[in-house]
Amino acid sequence: MKVRECFQTAASLINKDSITNNIQDVAQEKAFYYREKAKLQKQIVEYISTMKKKDGSEYKASSVKQAVDTLNRHLLHHSSIPHINLHDKYMFSDLHDVLHGKLHYLQEYGFGEHYNLKVDQFKSDGHNGLQFFRYISKHNQRGINGGEAQIISIPDDNNADENFYLQPNPYWITGSWYRTAHVRKNRLNKFMQNIGCETQIDIPIELLSNHFEHKTATQILQD
Q1: Full-model pTM
Q2: Rounded CA Rg of the chain
Q3: Which residues of the chain have pLDDT under 50?
Q4: What ranges do the domains of the chain cover?
Q5: What is the pLDDT of residue 221?
Q6: How many CB atoms are closer than 10 A to CB 174?
């Protein structure tokens, strides 16, 4: 065999060996990926399924979702799993199903947020108080008499001050500590700006919202 043919044969064997090694490396990486992903998903599913407060009561649905959001942010920086995203229902299908079921369960039993409250769910009790008709099933909210509801009494607060949310009176020593005029929009807007400065949050007033993404008092006054 000529020297040139020997080199070609040797090079061919080296290339084949290199390709084989690359295939094995890819296979090992895939095996590691699926193994670690399955292990992580199992741990988080067990955590979500059993998580409760120290006193044994349930967390709010929003708290459960925030826990998953926090885990996701942490894993994005520290997980060995590439491109991890706990919110991807295709990557973590079991977690998606369990989380969806958990949130639905909590909302059904009063641990969610009341996004769909309707004015006809509140009725006068005839004594200056109110009765709130809370429907367990979201498919059963087509009128007070349209199905079974939990009736929650909200009695009149005889000690309530009709001017509860008022401007402070700087001259209260000579009279009442509050003024009879309510806090105006600009003053309330300034409150929110001060809170933003103290917490180092710099966002437009129209984007300000509270923890549950409801409108702030400032936004309501602007409407």
Answers
A1: 0.43
A2: 30
A3: 138-146, 209-223
A4: 16-108, 123-154, 166-222
A5: 45
A6: 6
